[in-house]
Amino acid sequence: MNCIDYLLPNDINNGEIFVLGKREPLSFYELRSQVASLAVYLNQEYGTGNKFILLSPNSNYFIICYLAIMKSGNVVIPLNPSIEKDSLQYIKDQAEVSLAFIPHILHKQTLVTFENIWDEYKINDIVQERIEYENHINFEPNTLAQIIYTSGSTAMPKGVMISHKNIIANTTSIIEYLKLTDKDIMECVLPFFYCYGLSLLHTHLKVKGKIVLNNNFMFLGSVINDLQKYKCTGFAGVPSHFQILLRVSDSFKNEDFPNLRYVTQAGGKLHTAFIAEFRQAKPDTKFIVMYGQTEATARLSYLPPEKLNDKLGSIGKGIPGVELKVVDSNGEIIKPNEIGEIIAKGDNIMLGYFKDEKSTKETLKDGWLYTGDLAKVDEDGFIYHAARRKEIIKVGGKRVSPKEIEEVIVSIPGVVDCTIEAVSDEVLGEAIKAIIVKNETNEELTVDKIKSSCSARLSTYKIPKFIEFASKVNVNAAGKKVAKSHNY
């Protein structure tokens, strides 16, 4: 079972476009032809089972190389083009990588030496041979397709092993609950080295929809222009994207996007104040809250938009084909409103961590993925995310979830973002610090006003002892906030 033969459509016409844009539009016909040529060439030169690094921003080059590596029976490792030298060297050595796919413009920035580097000029020479697509390369469903490296509590990243079956299962589920069709056009600001971004590529390729690549989200005008010019039906973002669109952009809330059918949000909890604000500004656009992990290929749960009023703050229930439970420390299902850990089972759950048997055994138990995320469940079975296990702050022995405090602070007018972290305290053990980004035009937002608002809605021990104002949201290359939960 080859996931690329599943993803690439067969019934295509020469003129049907997959990647829209004036810089480098790409048709389905050209994509299928070039992927086939590169896959067969790779298979002839290297065989199968090798690990190849792909170091590139979102582009046609990335898409063709990414799909061809997996179709050839080899394993793709997509990485952030801005990855640190030590991390890149670690991954190269651990995966024993000899061949890297890196665009020419990034050659001089790559400080790690590879035996071979194939850039867009090399790829162009190969795909000119036009090898027929009928050259299928088949293998077992659980064959390793990709390794997605994630940052965690360890010094070096962990490699999440994703199979061809994992990709097929998650893609099928997402298409079903989002009701995607060939009429859908997605504005892609999420990088493809991130599993959420890859899920956009997979799903829209499968339904023969279209994507628009935008690697410059901070230029909000270009995103707004794309949504209008290409009549985008979908937008996917992490919390920071929606916070910036709603409270930094002057035009997003006031501009009409008649084609924008839905937006999806994952990659961390977006506080309900922002969700309510979006729905008020865009009542005709469906807002779909989702939850997932790289270890689950991408997606684990979603909240149907028609449930948003009744279940605001919930991450919903398991997507089609995924079973979710919230359990206590003994593995027993918790009662409503108790706190437990989310565990998951389905064909989208990873094979394990690459060359890390210990972490694999700690995370995969009896066929269940232990996510490390704490949550509660209401009487109707809807799940409400509380925090990561490692995020919980203990103030004088009392357990505090940073999300609860952040929710209160971001509801204050003029606040763009809030991050709660723990700092060492001789008396309490841990004290609470709030790092707040405010709209530049709001000069009235002071430390005293923040503490006053908190005291009206929070217990005394939950009020931040320290408050610091920052100039911008601290995010990584995927747009996700950089966690600094225990800063000591």
Question: Could you give a short description of this structure?
Answer:
Helix content is 28%, strand content 26%. By secondary structure, the chain is of the alpha/beta class.
Write structural notes for this entry.
The protein has 488 residues and is α/β, with parallel strands linked by helices. The protein has three domains: 3-139, Rossmann fold, CATH 3.40.50; 185-388, Rossmann fold; 392-470, ANL, C-terminal domain (GMP Synthetase, Chain A, domain 3, 2-Layer Sandwich). It has helices spanning 3-7, 28-46, 60-71, 85-95, 120-127, 164-178, 195-206, 220-229, 239-247, 272-281, 357-363, 402-410, 447-457, and strands at residues 17-20, 26-27, 51-55, 75-79, 99-101, 116-118, 144-150, 158-163, 185-188, 210-213, 234-237, 262-265, 286-291, 301-303, 317-318, 322-327, 340-346, 352-353, 364-365, 368-377, 383-388, 393-395, 398-400, 415-425, 429-438, 466-470. Helix 7 links the parallel strand 9 and strand 10 (210-213). It starts with a helix and ends in an 18-residue tail after the last strand.
Topology:
Layout: H1 3-7, E1 17-20, E2 26-27, H2 28-46, E3 51-55, H3 60-71, E4 75-79, H4 85-95, E5 99-101, E6 116-118, H5 120-127, E7 144-150, E8 158-163, H6 164-178, E9 185-188, H7 195-206, E10 210-213, H8 220-229, E11 234-237, H9 239-247, E12 262-265, H10 272-281, E13 286-291, E14 301-303, E15 317-318, E16 322-327, E17 340-346, E18 352-353, H11 357-363, E19 364-365, E20 368-377, E21 383-388, E22 393-395, E23 398-400, H12 402-410, E24 415-425, E25 429-438, H13 447-457, E26 466-470
Parallel strand pairs: 1-10, 3-4, 3-5, 5-6, 9-10, 9-11, 11-12, 12-13, 25-26
Antiparallel strand pairs: 1-2, 7-8, 8-18, 13-14, 14-15, 16-17, 17-20, 19-20, 20-21, 22-23, 24-25
Helix pairs in contact: 2-3, 6-7
